[in-house]
Amino acid sequence: MEKVPGWYVITGGPHSGKTTTVNRLAELGYETSPEYSRLFIDKELEKGRSLEEIRKNAKSYQDALVKVKLELEHKLPKDKDVFIDRGLVDATAYYKFLRTPLLKDLVKLCKNRYKKVFILDILPYKQDYARTETKKHAYKLHRLIKQAYEKLGYKIVRIPVMPIEDRVKMILENIK
Prior knowledge:
The chain is of the alpha/beta class.
């Protein structure tokens, strides 16, 4: 069996502080990888497409996101610790949430991919240009994401709502 890369996933439902946490880890000198869905949306918006056009077909949208995620992770060093804003496993939860069939072999690609998973509790909910889910949907996605990682046997560390410095400290204490 291939060795699991030193990759740590920072995940949770929409508006749980993932990107803020990953950005803070980057400021502290840790290697990080950005959230693939927001990266994809931003690139498509730059091309002149509207958010509605980008998300029009849920299956195509999710398939495109998986492709972007795989490309991002392919470029990551396997022999270094890297904090990743959302893991590939998150995509399986989104497919389930959208009630659309998974991309072929996705579950197989998700196994033994990450060293540890940190699930951040959701902050007081706010929508933005890319985060269009309702508060109810955000909590449902949070549960589905947690279940997806558990189903694949990942060790999960729950990070409660607290100041960013405390969240980062808790994460770093859990990778030692």
